[in-house]
Design a protein that fits this description.
With 275 residues, the protein is an alpha/beta fold. It contains 10 helices and 11 strands. The termini are far apart. Bound molecules: ligand C2E and calcium ion (3 copies). It comes from Altericroceibacterium indicum.
């Protein structure tokens, strides 16, 4: 409760109540949506900038709501995190992604986004290993994308989670690099195989000589440490050229493809085999 002026105690204001109701609504609907099959995983190619070939797909969740239409993850992932639904949802996403990847050629891996809430849940590593085993997918073909916010607290558990899965061959990517609490310490401490440079370095008001120099520096570090550096959010050929010249090894964005359903991902791979 908040003490407002004149010693009145006011519990909630109207907008807080509305937010809470809305959150409860989304939570209930999300649980039902999982049962009703309204969620799907779409796949966006991650392309080798040298050869133009697809090296991986990032799994991105989509919710097709019967009345509200397509809901973006930014609208429901935060609620799923706050309510803990993300744990069930996340296990389901990993299982779907692993199953799809098992159908692709061996050189193609799948990247799955993990939220800190999922990683902190008891049995998190086991959930992922179970999904891999059930799909018959080699752990080395799974890449887990985490953001720097993961490292703000609870470092022991996080370190154990990463070490346990890395020991089995699962790879880790540092996502949205350059947006949060970017610290080279995390790169030094954890076995990342990949750094994804945030889209804000590729397009928008902050792009210029400075952002270019930063990408260059990150790419140089990546080359020395034998990490892939991915440029996200590539929409134009100019942007592709810029990040390639700066030394990024992989690219992702609408210029190559949006996230597509699993059958279209399989078709993109089949077309590659023909050419
Ligand atoms: P992210 O991990 O940074 O994912 C990339 C986002 O950028 C995706 O949005 C993708 O569709 C979008 N994108 C890709 N290429 C371009 C481009 O060229 N231009 C522009 N403007 N956007 C591009 P999406 O699918 O809406 O996902 C948003 C965020 O939601 C993701 O950001 C990720 O943080 C979260 N998310 C998505 N799927 C999952 C999931 O399965 N689990 C968890 N925990 N989070 C997820
Ligand atoms: Ca991601
Ligand atoms: Ca990202
Ligand atoms: Ca993001």
């Amino acid at each position: 409760a908040k003490i407002s002026g004149r010693n009145q105690v006011c519990f909630f204001d109207a907008s807080m109540t509305r937010n809470l109701v809305r959150k409860k609504e989304i939570e209930a609907e999300l649980r039902a949506a999982l049962q009703r099959d309204e969620l799907s995983i779409f796949f966006q190619p991650i392309v080798d900038l040298e050869t133009g070939r697809i090296r991986a797909f990032e799994a991105l969740v989509r919710w097709f709501h019967p009345e509200k239409g397509e809901l973006r993850p930014d609208e429901f992932i935060p609620v799923a995190e706050e309510t803990g639904v993300i744990i069930t949802l996340g296990n389901w996403i990993t299982a779907q992604a692993a199953r799809a990847c098992a159908q692709w050629p061996e050189g193609v891996s799948v990247a799955v986004n993990l939220s800190p809430v999922q990683i902190r849940a008891p049995g998190a590593a086991l959930g992922i290993l179970t999904a891999l085993r059930d799909a018959g997918l080699d752990p080395s073909r799974l890449e887990l994308e985490v953001t720097e916010s993961l490292f703000l607290d609870d470092n022991q558990h996080t370190a154990r989670f990463i070490d346990e899965l890395a020991a089995k061959g699962v790879r880790f990517a540092l996502d949205d690099f350059g947006t949060g609490y970017s610290s080279l310490g995390y790169i030094n401490k954890f076995p990342f195989k990949k750094i994804k440079v945030d889209r804000s370095f590729v397009s928008g008001p902050n792009v210029g000589i400075k952002s270019d120099a930063i990408i260059r520096a990150v790419a140089e570090m990546g080359a020395t440490l034998e990490m892939d550096i991915v440029a996200e959010g590539l929409e134009t050929i100019e942007q592709v050229h810029t990040v390639r010249n700066a030394g990024c090894t992989l690219g992702q964005g609408y210029y190559f493809s949006r996230a597509v359903p699993d059958y279209l991902a399989a078709m993109l791979l089949a077309q590659e085999l023909e050419s």
